[in-house]
Amino acid sequence: MRALPFIAPRALARPTLVAVATLASSTVLHAQLGSFNPRPGPQGTYAITNARIVPVSGPEIARGTVLIKGSKIEAVGANVAIPSGAQVLDASGLTVYPGMMDAGTSMGLSEIGQGANATVDVAEVGSFNPNAQAYYAINPHSAHIGVARVVGITSVVSRPTGGILSGQAALVNLAGSTVPEMSVVPRVALAMELPRSGFGGRRGGGGGEFAALAGAANTQDVQRLRQRQLDSLRQILKDAEAYGKSLDAYARDKTLPRPKHDVVLESMLPAVRGEEPVMMVADRAGDIRESVLFAEEMKLKPIIVGGRDAWMVAAFLKQHNVPVLLGGINDLPTREDDPYDVNWSAAGKLVAAGVRIAVTSGDAGSEVRNLPLVAGMAAAYGLSKADALKSVTLWPAQIMGVGDKMGSLDAGKVANLVVTDGDLLEAKTNTRYLFIDGRPVPLDSKHTELYTQFKQRP
Predict the structure, then answer these.
(1) Is 32 helix (H, G, I), strand (E, B) or coil?
(2) What span, in angstroms and rounded, lies between the C-alpha atoms of 179 and 431?
(3) To 5 degrees, how large is the angle CA 279–CA 284–CA 285?
């Protein structure tokens, strides 16, 4: 990875940054009990000077300044006036990037996936749980958060899994002692996975009843169950639409009977009204097509999650203007006749076809830290270097509907940024400074804590 044990000592050692270093050290000493994630420092006015700046949304600035005021970026440019009282960070020889976003995680919902069930809260029982919200289950003290943010990942989309309607995903920043402190969009998308169209292939999905039958020899039984599940899904979506209409009618005319409150149907209203996208998990080409067509039938706004074979149906996705949160880039090929680079080259093929994508780590939490390396591999196999950077910064923000607030270094956007001593997507690069929501974040994590604890061991 990125030699994480050495990041924090070097990041806090520059003499020109005494104020920020002192602040970071103070927050480390007062880290909250039971948390591996030190609290960020206070918002203020910070000027990162003499840096190479990569805004992503525009041309690079060979030597310039990024001015942060409060939670926002105040100015970016080669000739930015530094106000009196600003804390100046001399970033000579360093590069400033926007913070990365992984839009395909379950961060904070699962700590130890194998062997500690009490730390796993990614799914509810049953197939239809649209009212389940990741926002209420995220653990802000997860060790995965600190490890992910020190490589430059400043925000993630965390979604529930399991069943057909899994629940509501949340977009959060990776800094804060409570979920409200971290929250950017508490309900950013509805998570859905259609029951698969045959045996094998896609991970999970379909609910426990379907999983039990999927191993049976009788294909007709499986397909009948699948059709019943699809019909049930259509019906609950139609019920939600009707529920919304009854609420609207009552709002216009109070003489009508007041609709009975239904938390399940109410949670689906933004999706059925087209106000919220639907994250649809699909890997196989046939399942991707079916997910898109189902979404159009039900007037939903789909985002494909996973999309292993999306490159096979790139023209179809482009035609229907459906974005892909591409995962599995570092996975081994799944078919014996696949070329060795089938997954590494998928991102480049999709972008060449005009499909909107965001590269994801493809992991729920513990390996989200590999996001820059995954994007770097895509860049080595057909995706341009500039597009690889956009695929983990601006593009996921745009796909999730927050491109006007996050994803690039522009005045007025949230000050989520990372300062490095090299290329953001290179494995040997170290993070030197990190800001989330305009707050300087100490570069300590469970990894650095364990390194410090055991480095003197005989």
Answers:
(1) coil
(2) 25
(3) 95
pTM: 0.88
What's the pLDDT score for residue 220?
81
- Residue (of 420, 399, 365) closest to 280 by Cα position: 399
Phi, psi dihedral angles at 323 (to 5 degrees)? -80, 165
DSSP string of 133-166?
Answer: BGGGT--TT-HHHHHHHTTTEEEEEE---SSSEE
Yes or no: say if 36 and 445 are a contact pair by the CB < 8 Å rule. Answer: yes
**Is residue 375 helix, strand or coil?**
helix
100-406 folds as TIM Barrel (3.20.20)
CATH, domain 4-99+439-454, list 1.10.357, 2.60.40, 3.30.420, 2.30.40: 2.30.40
Identify whether the C-beta of residue 184 lies closer than 8 Å to the C-beta of residue 173: yes
Who's near 365: CB < 8 A, 6+ residues apart? 105, 106, 107, 108, 109, 110, 111, 142, 144
Q: What percent of the chain is helix, strand and coil (3-state, nearest 5)?
A: 35, 20, 45
pLDDT digits (tens, 9 = 90+) for 254-291: 999 999 999 999 999 999 999 999 999 999 999 999 99
Q: Which of the 8 DSSP states describes residue 369?
A: G
Q: 446-455: long-range contacts at Cβ-Cβ below 8 A with a sequence spacing of 24 or more?
A: 446/36, 446/143, 446/146, 446/147, 447/4, 447/5, 447/147, 448/4, 448/5, 448/7, 448/8, 448/150, 449/36, 451/4, 451/5, 452/5, 455/5
- 3-state class of 343 per DSSP? coil
Alpha-carbon span 148 to 268, nearest angstrom: 31
Give the pairing of strands 417-420 and 95-98.
Answer: antiparallel
**What string of DSSP letters covers 232-265?**
HHHHHHHHHHHHHHHHHHHHH-TTSPPPPP-HHH
- The burial class, CB within 10 Å (0-12 / 13-18 / 19+), for 15 is exposed
Euclidean distance between CA atoms 358 and 329, whole angstroms: 12
Q: Which two tokens stand for residue 214?
A: 């999927």
- CA gap 41, 28 in Å, rounded: 10
> At 229, is the secondary structure helix, strand, or coil?
helix
> 219, 207 in Cβ contact below 8 A?
no
Q: pLDDT tens-digit profile of 98-112? A: 999 999 999 999 988
Domain chopping of the chain, boundaries: 4-99+439-454, 100-406
Query: Cα–Cα distance between 289 and 239 in angstroms, integer?
Result: 25
Q: What 3-state class would DSSP assign to 91?
A: coil
Mark out the alpha helices in 303-367 (DSSP H runs): 314-320, 346-352
